[in-house]
Amino acid sequence: MESTEDEQFRQLLIDTAHNKDSRYYRTAELSAQVVSASSAQQSMTVELTADAGEICSAKCLDEGLVATLADFWTSTLITALNNGKGAVTTSLSVQALSPIEPATKIHIVCTAAGGNHSLPFATARFVSAANPSNVLATATHTKFFRP
Question: Are 144 and 88 in contact (CB under 8 A)?
Answer without folding.
Answer: yes
